[in-house]
Amino acid sequence: SGVGRNWGWASAGSSILAEFGTLHMEFVHLSYLTGDPVYYNKVMHIRKLLQKMDRPNGLYPNYLNPRTGRWGQHHTSVGGLGDSFYEYLLKAWLMSDKTDTEARKMYDDAIEAIEKHLIRKSNGGLTFIGEWKNGHLERKMGHLTCFAGGMFALGADGSRDDKAGHYLQLGAEIAHTCHESYDRTTLKLGPEAFKFDGGVEAVAVRQNEQYYILSDASQFPNFVLQLNCVCLFPSFLQAIDKYCRVSGGFSGVKDVYSSSPTYDDVQQSFFLAETLKYLYLLFSNDDLLPLDNWVFNTEAHPLPVLHLANTTLSGNPA
Question: Binding positions for Ca(2+) (predicted)?
Fold first, then answer.
């Protein structure tokens, strides 16, 4: 019909932060290739609108109503629904050869608010990122949130107030927490979400959060490439091969705490598009795709760093 439609469950048909915020890299590059600024202008328009809006506690809610231009329910997550929005602010800066200072400022402002309002340390000393829901911090960390450990490390260079060491340490602590969420399962595969309530730490409590669906260690390899840390992955690879391989490919499992897991009978597309691709890159030589020249989008597609100071938008020599 040519008419856009949002999901009803998304705060009464709102648009989702991780979706409308995760266009920057691809659309900027598309304008670079075609010489047509329409794609670049679209994503910059979104960015300008977001900059103007008041944000509760400096946090970006996951939902924005496209008809009213107002936030939907005040739910902020660095995991699902929000994750790649923050990733792309940082990577837009990197892809621009660190000239897109607006993207860097938005990233710095966002992570300062995240650290202040969402990041806590458990009784057992595990650093985790919770979720903000209607004025309350839920002490639950999603599997997808684990990418943030690497994001903090990747963004350490160029951080405000000479806090590179702080963000490297913070990234390492979050990575350790995610490693624990894997290690505390029977299968050594991470659950979809894990709690930090009372005596429960880095463990999924609800049955509907105990599954694993072939995701790439919470997109963690996305950034572990920059961390040069492969401590998690030999056991992770062995667990996938042992518990997820079936005759026709690979399947997700319904309960990572069960010694005799049952399959969900689905091989998710991101298993090929992300998990295996990142693992291949992770164990390849660093010069395969030098990170000074390439930035990976969230699905591990390599996009070149654009030295825009020396080019026009169309990619021809200035």
Answer: 298
Tell me which of 180, 192, 201, 274 is the catalytic residue.
192
The predicted-structure confidence for 235-264, as pLDDT tens digits, reads as follows 788 899 999 999 999 999 999 999 998 999
Residue range(s) defining the domain that contains residue 188 = 122-298
pLDDT tens figures, 35-49: 999 999 999 999 999
Answer whether residue 311 is part of any domain.
no
| Separation CA 250–CA 93 (nearest Å) | 36
Each residue's pLDDT tens digit, 15-28: 999 999 888 899 99
Determine, yes or no, domain membership for 47: no
Distance CA 308, CA 32 (A): 9
Residue 106 domain-assigned (yes or no): no
Binding-site members for Ca(2+) are 298
- Answer for the pair 138, 131: CB distance below 8 angstroms, yes or no: yes
The total domain count for the chain is: 1
Share of the chain above pLDDT 90, in %: 66
Q: Would you call 299 a catalytic residue per the annotation?
A: no
Question: Quick check: is 66 in a domain?
Answer: no
